Amino acid sequence: MTITRPAPDLRPVRPSPDEPRPDEPRPDEARLLELLDARAPAHSLPGPCYTDPALHEVDLRLVWQRQWFFVGTVAEVPEAGDFLTVDVGTASVVVLRDDDEQVRALRNVCRHRGSRLVSGSHGCVGNIVCGYHHWTYGTDGRLLHAPQLPPGVDPGGLGLRPVHLREVAGLLFVCLGDEPPEDIEDVARVVAPYVAPHQLGRTKVAAQVDLVEDGNWKLTMENNRECYHCDGHPELRCTFFPTWGLSDDQVPDAMRADHDRYLAALVDLERRSDDLGLPHGLVEDLVERPLGFRVQREPLDGAGESFSPDGTRLVRRLLGDLPEARLGHLGLHTQPNAWFHFQADHVVTFAALPLAVDRTLVRTTWLVHEDAVEGVDYEVEELTATWRATNEQDAAFVAGTQAGVADPGYLPGPYSEAEQQVEAFVAWYDARVREAVGR
Predict the structure, then answer these.
(1) Signal peptide position in this chain (predicted)?
(2) Taking the CB of the first residue and of the last residue of the chain, which one, N or C, has fewer CB atoms within 10 A?
(3) Per-residue pLDDT tens digits for 164-180
(4) For the stretch 363-380, what's the b/e string if a residue is b when 16 or more beta carbons lie within 10 angstroms of its beta carbon?
(5) How far is Cα 277 from Cα 72, in angstroms, rounded to an integer?
């Protein structure tokens, strides 16, 4: 049978007058801008910003494919060949330590016909071998072997596509864009001295939990940025002061005693931090900077050592060369997707990664000293109890909010005085979208 097809029309295609010019936002981007324009100051976002799949794709394109975001720590890839993977929408990145002990990030896509190369959140490889047609890559991304590759095809041009990666005192950030924002160097100069004393390069993973929240990624981040709801976290409130996020003039009378106790603990912590040469003051640049951040060493309630029911340490072996346990917690937050708690005895990292418009992966990782022995220096269940419970409670809050913002009866409400950092996150998101579309 002979099938005849018309010859293709190779003439240049002229854009329709109804299509946007190159310097105009796309229709879906213009719609998002209209919704952002309609938001009243210090109010939550309109419902479609959390529920519309088309606008979620705009988020992926304008934010997640342009900005730096946190993916893990050096402790997750301690040896040559060790890797971790992160998925953002349909994009997948593999972060691994190569044979020369360098950490690098690569697109998790075979250069042959696009098959996924590695699966699972973590693992170890010698070489990276595609399971489809067995194209083989080194841990540096070079194509080593491609069966029956035609003569004249240069394998040197078929290596895995690199992804920008920057380590900040053991924290790993990647950027999917061709030209990542340069401000990460400024952020690193500020943040690294705070994190460095905990020596993440001398830690190991004690536990890691992946939890999928049934909510938009922005709701996950907004929930994390306030303690207005912390009555719903009884385990966390054992050591997390209830007036976190409030200035002196915002503290209600009923919480004044709690706040006075916090202020006294803060003065004591600052004195001891100064004695030990540990940076502790608040540095906050959450809105204008592409890699928005907030960092501060703050006291914990009770014994002031760790996130335990009485505030005492959870790991006998302290991190790095820290000489004492009563150092509260170093809190670090980075836009768009991460928050961290560094104690003297362990570190907890959190990465929020969008899976769908209404599904967000929250990956929580507990790090302890590399020489700490499970069952002797720490118990995993005790180490993880507070944040396992808190994460599950937060997942319920986020799911309830996702259901609410999808309701036809939803109208954006005003933020409370305790939600200033929520407003800062939303303002950061608004600014990044407008930067990306040139508005």
Answers:
(1) none
(2) N
(3) 999 999 999 999 999 99
(4) bbbbbbbeebeeeebbee
(5) 27
For residues 110 and 88, what is the distance between their CA atoms, to the nearest angstrom? Answer: 17
Q: Among 389, 359, 336, 350, which residue's Cα sits nearest to residue 213?
A: 359
In contact, 65 and 176? CB cutoff 8 Å = yes
Bridge partners (DSSP) of residue 368 are 204
Measured CA to CA, the distance from residue 391 to residue 210 in angstroms comes to: 10
What are the residues facing 334 on neighbouring strands?
Answer: 293, 338
- Strand order from edge to edge, sheet including 329-334: 203-213, 359-369, 347-356, 338-342, 329-334, 293-298, 283-285
**What is each CA distance from 217 to 355, 359, 392, 401, 402, in whole angstroms?**
8, 7, 16, 12, 10
Handedness of CA 233, 236, 239, 240 (dihedral sign): negative
Which domains are delineated in the chain?
28-67+184-439 (3.90.380.10), 68-180 (2.102.10.10)
Interior angle at CA 361, CA 71 and CA 367, nearest 5: 50
Which of 324, 325, 298, 322 lies closest to 314, judged by CA? 325
CA distance 310 to 155: 60
Assess whether pLDDT exceeds 70 at residue 6.
no
What is the CB-side half-sphere exposure of residue 331 using CA atoms within 13 A? 16
Going through 3-102 in order, the beta strands assigned E by DSSP cover 68-73, 82-88, 91-97
Residue pair 407/211 in contact (Cβ under 8 Å)? The answer is no
H helix or E strand, kind and range, residue 171: strand 171-175
């479609």: which residue's tokens?
48
pLDDT tens, 370-417? 999 999 999 999 999 999 999 999 999 999 999 999 999 999 999 998
Q: Please state whether beta strands 203-213 and 359-369 pair in parallel, antiparallel, or not at all (unpaired).
A: antiparallel
- Give me the sheet containing 122-124, strands edge to edge: 68-73, 171-175, 162-168, 103-107, 91-97, 82-88, 122-124
Cα separation, 388 vs 381, in Å, equals 9
CB neighbours of 352 closer than 8 A, spacing ≥ 6? 217, 220, 221, 224, 337, 338, 360, 361, 362
C-beta separation of 240 from 308 below 8 A: no
